[in-house]
Amino acid sequence: MIDIQTIDNEFCAATYGRTSVVFDHASGATLFDAEGRSYIDFGSGIGVMSLGYGHPAWVEAVKTQAEKLPHTSNLYYSRPTALLAQKLCERTGFKRVFFSNSGAEANECLIKTARKWANDTKGEGVHPIVTLRNSFHGRTIATVTATGQDVFHTHFGPFPDGFLYVPANDIAALEKVLKEHSCAAFLFEVVQGEGGVCALNAQYMKAAQELCKKHNVLLCIDEVQTGNGRTGTWFAFEQFGLSPDIVSTAKGLGGGLPIGATLFGEQTAQTLTAGTHGSTFGGNPIACAAALAVLETLSSDALDDVRRKAQVITTTLSALPTVRDVSGLGMMIGFSVEGKKSAEVRAAALKEGLLVLTAKDRVRLLPPLTISDEELQTGLQRLCAAISA
Ligand SMILES: *Cc1c(COP(=O)(O)O)cnc(C)c1O
After folding, report:
1. Segment 241-265, tens digit of pLDDT
2. What is residue 316's predicted lDDT score, i.e. its pLDDT?
């Protein structure tokens, strides 16, 4: 029998510390390894499998588009691409969308648009983008620079100019930086995912929006992880009375296929013009057909159910004596366990047949949004066993 782990370890770049499992197939929110052992999925890949595995609407959409027309390039019009852009705009109130293939690319587009907008409207010169400490915006050279965590800033310098960092939830620090520098944009995550599932303070975000208006700076939100129903609304910002100028998203949007999207409001809808940006695979018809299935399946009723299930999870967790600091929004949940490292909880969960994620020193849960009550209960039982193991 061929040993996949040995082959991977020899031939794939050693960028990932993989867990010693080779999954074979999956259904609903349950994965099966090569030996037929089952695992409940509380990670969705990393927030990607929003409809779980084998959702009939998603499978049908992908199969049909793969047979019909998988790719045309952006030299021509494509039906799923146009319809996805329309449906996303109608659902969220944005005016235009640029499609790419990942979260980092969606943020690259956001950064380029913010810079061009500043150039067009405020004149040439340096127009920095302010980001938060403990943020995460991606792994490309520009997005890793936008990421406000020093651990990501080793090895790969020099980094591009034009990013300034402030601590989260500190409105005075934001005001100071906007006063001292002529800036293009302020960019943040409503819930810092990789940073440890830290939800920003609601008043802070409202006050930040006011400051951005006052200083004529674009309000930009990275909804790569929080978007697409994850927090119980299509975008997380909707719950806080915010109206951002640019939003980026990816992860759960394609339900398992790579797609990123950057959405532009009134102010930025005309910023990108012919030839200013592009992507060979961006708006790929199969990925867009998959995303259309995700968008249609995650109706407002389905999102009511996301909020209900999120409540079940947080209530269960909060009742456990060693669980600390349950945080997050909707089905994006973080916590720590007294006396246990997050990696230990993850390993104990794996033994119980449950997949969880970590974010820094915290355990992170991002279950499929369509998880059944039965799988949710089984998963929670396994989680409780792992926590008390
Ligand atoms: C995952 C993530 C990204 C990067 O997305 P990729 O698809 O890995 O490039 C960017 N921002 C946030 C908030 C993320 O969670």
Report:
1. 999 999 999 999 999 999 999 999 9
2. 98
Q: Is residue 171 within 8 Å of 138, Cβ to Cβ?
A: no
Q: Is 222 in the pocket of ligand 1 (CB under 6 A)?
A: yes
CA Rg value for the chain: 21
- 191 forms beta bridges with 199
Residue 138 in contact with ligand 1 by CB distance below 6 A: yes
Query: How does pLDDT run across 12-21, given as a tens digit for each residue?
Result: 999 999 999 9
Distance from C-alpha of 219 to C-alpha of 242, rounded to nearest angstrom: 9
* Maximum Cα–Cα distance across the chain: 65
Is the CB–ligand 1 distance for residue 108 below 6 Å?
A: no
Cα–Cα distance between 329 and 344 in angstroms, integer? Answer: 24
List the chain residues with pLDDT less than 50: none
* CA dist., res. 135 & res. 131, Å (int): 7
**Is the Cβ atom of 103 under 6 angstroms away from ligand 1?**
yes
Q: Is the peptide bond before 56 cis (omega within 30 degrees of 0)?
A: no
**CB-based contact 117:111 (threshold 8 Å):** no
Element (H, E) at 178: helix 171-180
For residues 384 and 353, the answer to whether their CB atoms sit within 8 Å is no
Rounded to two decimals, the pTM is: 0.98
Secondary structure tally for the chain: helices H, strands E? 12, 17
Report pLDDT for 1: 62
Cα-to-centroid distance, 90 and ligand 1 (Å) = 24
pLDDT reported for residue 63: 98
Report CA(222)–ligand 1 centroid distance (Å): 8
Note if 222 is an active site residue.
Answer: yes
| Structural tokens at position 238 | 């909707």
Nearest to 347 by CA among 20, 23, 3: 20
Q: Which atom of ligand 1 is nearest to the CA of 222?
A: 13
DSSP character string of 17-34? ---S--EEEEEBTEEEET
- Collect all residues with Cβ–Cβ distance below 8 Å to 131 and sequence separation of at least 6: 137, 146, 147, 148, 163, 164, 165, 166, 186, 187, 188
Query: Whose C-alpha lies nearest to ligand 1, atom 6?
Result: 103
H/E stretch holding 62: helix 56-68
Is 136 one of the annotated active-site residues of the chain? yes
